[in-house]
């Protein structure tokens, strides 16, 4: 029996489905990677009309307030002076479940922030965890399908998850967090948030600094016991949504302090790890947290569909003074999130009130579904032009990073470092005995429904993290 050849939708053989094409091993994604673009574009259109991921969520309006001066790092107007307030919108969500799923399942939580700044909208789209399961966006559709339903039975199957994770050991750091006590937050108000990816700030002299964003809840971190979470999934599947809405309605406005970790260009080049690897964290001893400000949520949406369901976020929405990085997953999300919004909400989703910038918008985009403004009126609809009243480019420096785009184009193995275990090991050693016990019990409960060959593969990884972890999980599985 001949082996099936993996092809594109056009029948073209795929030589490598593990690594995106990049400019050098640490460089950004290359747009000529048709296979990556086809996978992400097709994936974004697979379900209609709910979000393919982060389908169920809750949100609120609020404000961001600057408390510390970071103008040495960024010239963004949002940070221009201490005490400055900027209106914002935050959405929290489950990653894997459908729109009707329970709030209290074991799952990462989306942590999406939209800041309506003077220079346009800045979206910071992260999670309640500082890392993610994969490094390369080419694997994102594959990963998410393991969290969804069996194409034959339409049932969720833990074999899918553990099969993928055990064959993708870079996921182990996030898996350790997911099955720890942090895996089921007791409230959206009581969990930390992270930008997760490496981003950048650019100052008035056009000097770039790499940063990681942290948002620490001032309500205190609170998590649910798995048994209690299971009970709530049956008795009140909207538990977290209700908690956030009622807290704000009753005047208990949740607040998070915002911090950044800072890494210079030179430090990044000499760092022992790839600083753009989203499966790893930066040491807070080496790169301590610097306070920036806080955000507070003080107003519930007036209509869920209009404001929460139609809200669209993209990590590509960065304003002058804020930038992205060569983080491969971030590069893929910059395309995928905006493309998903165009498909799900419409090509003119930016005109909806919840998504509309509060600063002036002038461009040459015209027509398309749901165009409910004046569509540019009679203004010239091409550029360059000789119309003195038409919008013109600013000719200011762009937020790119030329130092990381000099490598030869190719598919570079994203698993070349082979360091899958040091970060999960460090996390395991930081846990208190009761946290280790809960982690092990959660692993056993999930793995006991998984095939023996996959269990064996997982235990081999656990052995490399820490023999205690492997031994106790193996004992629990008998």
Automatic annotation (TrEMBL):
Positions of the catalytic residues: 54, 127
SMART domains cross-referenced by the UniProt entry: Catalase
GO cellular component, one term: cytoplasm
SUPFAM superfamilies xrefs: Heme-dependent catalase-like (SSF56634)
Pfam short name (any one): Catalase
Residues binding heme, per UniProt: 337
Names of the cofactor(s): heme
UniProt EC number: 1.11.1.6
Keyword terms, alphabetized: Heme, Hydrogen peroxide, Iron, Metal-binding, Oxidoreductase, Peroxidase
Reaction equation(s) it catalyzes: 2 H2O2 = O2 + 2 H2O
Molecular-function GO terms, alphabetical: catalase activity; heme binding; metal ion binding
Regions of compositional bias (Polar residues) in chain numbering: 382-397
Primary role: Decomposes hydrogen peroxide into water and oxygen; serves to protect cells from the toxic effects of hydrogen peroxide.
Name of the protein described by the UniProt record: catalase
Source organism: Commensalibacter melissae
């Amino acid at each position: 029996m001949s082996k099936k050849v993996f092809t594109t939708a056009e029948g073209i053989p795929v030589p490598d489905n593990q690594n995106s094409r990049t400019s050098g091993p640490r460089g950004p994604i290359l747009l000529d990677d048709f296979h990556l673009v086809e996978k992400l574009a097709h994936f974004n259109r697979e379900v209609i009309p709910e979000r393919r991921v982060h389908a169920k969520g809750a949100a609120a309006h609020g404000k961001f307030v600057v408390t510390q001066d970071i103008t040495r790092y960024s010239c963004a107007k949002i940070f221009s002076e201490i005490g400055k307030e900027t209106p914002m919108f935050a959405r929290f969500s489950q990653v894997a479940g459908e729109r009707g799923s329970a709030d209290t399942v074991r799952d990462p939580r989306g942590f999406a922030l939209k800041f309506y700044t003077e220079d346009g909208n800045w979206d910071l789209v992260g999670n309640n965890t500082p890392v993610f399961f994969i490094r390369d966006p080419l694997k994102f559709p594959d990963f998410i399908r393991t969290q969804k339903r069996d194409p034959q039975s339409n049932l969720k199957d833990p074999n899918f998850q553990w099969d993928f994770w055990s064959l993708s050991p870079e996921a182990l750091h996030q898996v350790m967090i997911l099955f720890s006590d942090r895996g089921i937050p007791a409230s959206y108000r009581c969990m930390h948030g992270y930008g997760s990816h490496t981003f950048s700030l650019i100052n008035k002299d056009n000097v770039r600094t790499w940063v990681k964003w942290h948002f620490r809840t001032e309500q205190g971190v609170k998590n649910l016991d798995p048994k209690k979470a299971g009970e709530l999934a049956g008795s009140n599947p909207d538990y977290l949504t209700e908690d956030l809405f009622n807290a704000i309605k009753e005047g208990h406005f949740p607040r998070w302090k915002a911090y950044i970790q800072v890494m210079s260009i030179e430090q990044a080049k000499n760092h022992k790890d790839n600083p753009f690897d989203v499966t790893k964290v930066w040491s807070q001893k080496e790169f301590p947290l610097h306070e920036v400000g806080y955000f507070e949520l003080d107003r519930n949406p007036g209509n869920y569909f209009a404001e929460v369901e139609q809200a669209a976020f993209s990590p590509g929405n960065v304003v002058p003074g804020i930038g992205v990085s060569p983080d491969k997953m971030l590069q893929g999300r910059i395309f995928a999130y905006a493309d998903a919004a165009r498909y799900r909400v419409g090509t003119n989703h930016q005109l909806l009130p919840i998504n509309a910038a509060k600063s002036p918008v002038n461009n040459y985009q015209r027509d398309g579904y749901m165009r409910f403004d004046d569509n540019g009126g009679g203004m010239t609809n091409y550029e360059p032009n000789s119309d003195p009243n038409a919008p013109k480019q600013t000719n200011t420096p762009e937020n790119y990073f030329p130092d990381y785009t000099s490598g030869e184009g190719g598919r570079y193995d994203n698993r070349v470092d082979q360091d899958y275990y040091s970060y999960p090991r460090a996390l395991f050693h930081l846990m208190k005995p009761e946290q280790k016990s809960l982690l092990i019990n959660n692993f056993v409960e999930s793995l006991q429904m998984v095939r023996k060959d996959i269990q064996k593969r997982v235990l081999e990884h656990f052995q490399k993290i820490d023999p205690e972890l492997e031994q106790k999980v193996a004992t629990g599985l008998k």
